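User: GH18 domain-containing protein. Structure?
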Amino acid sequence: MGSLTNLGKVGVLVALTLSFSASRVCFSTVANYTQNTAIGLCSQAILQTLKVGTNGTIAYVTTTTTPQSTVRSLLPTFCNRRVAYPYLEPYLAVVGAGTESPLAAMLSTPTVRANFVRALVAFVKSYPNCVGIFIDFSGLSTSQAYNNLFRWIIKGISPGKMILGLSMYARAFNVSRVSQFGAQGTAISTVASYCDALLFSSQFGIQTNSAGESISSSSSMAYVFNSFAAIDIKLNFARSNSLGGVALFSLNTAGANAELLRYVTSVIAPTPPAGYTYPPASRPTCGVPITFPQPGGTTTQPGGVTGGTTRAGGEEKRLLLEEPQLLLEVLEEQRPLLGEPQLLLEEPQLLQEVLEEQRLLQE
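Assistant: Predicted structure:
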């Protein structure tokens, strides 16, 4: 089993050690963000756009419809949203799984790893409106689910450094009418937008809220998603266990008004950063009224404070990529973990058990 010998370095690297009252970490994929206003409801935003290339070069996350040239042209539209929302901290994510040979070579070969660190630091510095990087190495199989929570790591990590992941999309199924989980159905392959689920539930109602998930069903289709009532269960869990905040995936499926993100923000960070207002909603189109933010939500910048950014309810913690050696050391520590399960915070019950064990050990 591998281990992280200096967890403090990882905490600095990802820079997500924030108070619960402020953290709304918004994941996103490549798109044109020039007109995106929902991102202004996030405290941090993470664009999943980079990966390890051959011999430690920088490569890009591409699709058949989004080639590398398109990714490079759209990337600045994400970083530059910080001009409109100076309190926002945009990050570029390096994504990958242990099955990718360039990633494996980078983690196992010191010279390739050094090449990648130099290339990555230079790349991020060329986008000054993005404040740093986020390392997102994952790829668990279903058979590894039993080990998706490293108890021996968690027992040494403060709950305030953990972020609870929330889905900002829906899953759709072709079914005969259902009212509870466990019914038979055929999944529709694409991820449905959150707005689609809201429109559907406004017509057919919500049949159940269970374990933080909701079902809305007609005679032939069902949506499973985070309704506002369901998300309250998860927010209460995060608050009662003093977690560091929440992360939502993704801005791309959030809808024009990002109704779920807007609701989460109204609950855990209702006051905008000093001197700013949260972006108002456009005309509601998803079947629910929008009341946040209320008009006149500007707060005042404290006297004598200049430069930097502020965040409602949280201490400022910025990641600056001025220490390539730090990143090199962290990636070296990740090398023994290649192929090992990573930490997932998608199972509140498992986390609850671990936190209880930690409490008993401290008594």
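Residues 110-125 form the longest helix (16 residues). The CA atoms of residues 56 and 111 lie 8 Å apart.
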